[in-house]
Each structure stands twice: as C-alpha cells, then as structure tokens.
Specification:
alpha+beta; three-stranded mixed beta sheet; two-stranded antiparallel sheet; 3 helices; 24% strand; globular; disordered N terminus; disordered C terminus
C-alpha cells in the first residue's frame, strides 16, 4: 500500500498489510501534530478517521486505535461515501487532522 498526502501530492510511505498501514497513518498524524499543528493546543484539534469497513466493530476499532495514540484530542469516525469506496474497496481506512475553526464576531 502506498500513502499519498492530499496536501502535497507525494507518496508518504509504503506498507505491507493493514497493520503496517495503520502504523504509517498514525506516524503521519504524529508528524502533522508536531509540525503543521505544533502551535495549536489539543483543545482546538480534531482527528477524523474514515473507512469503508464491513462492520461497525472494525470502524470502532480503527477509531479507538487512533484515539489511544492521541488521548487529549477528540477522534471521530465517518463512513467513506460510495464514490470513494468504489475506488478503494472494502475495509479501507484513513485519517485527517483538523484544527477547529473559530470565528470572532465583532459587536
């Protein structure tokens, strides 16, 4: 499996098997946390996990695995839509870190 960053369009790494793929994705999240989001407090971060898992248990396991690596950051899970699932197949997984956006309204 090759991992491509959507932000930079380069291959992040390669892995054989799902366990190594999950480890690579967690490593990528940790790198993003240290670099892209290094100055952002945990309270303002979110991690979104996603996948095309066949069962809710698999989806919950993937979310819990990522949550265990980032205990101070909320982690959620979304099902990938069919338009993506038809290309990646079943039991695919992914992650994306996000900084929570806040808007200050002047009154």
């Amino acid at each position: 499996m090759a991992f491509t960053s959507l932000r930079t369009q380069h291959t992040y790494g390669k892995a054989r098997g799902m366990q190594q793929a999950e480890q690579k994705m967690v490593e990528a999240l940790k790198q993003d946390r240290a670099t892209r989001f290094g100055a952002v407090p945990d309270a303002q971060l979110r991690v979104e996990t996603a996948g095309t898992f066949e069962s809710e248990e698999q989806a919950a396991r993937w979310r819990a695995l990522v949550q265990a690596e980032f205990p101070g950051i909320p982690v959620s899970y979304v099902h990938l839509p069919c338009s993506i699932a038809c290309h990646v197949g079943i039991n695919a997984a992914g992650t994306e870190p996000m900084a929570a956006c806040t808007v200050a309204l002047g009154r």
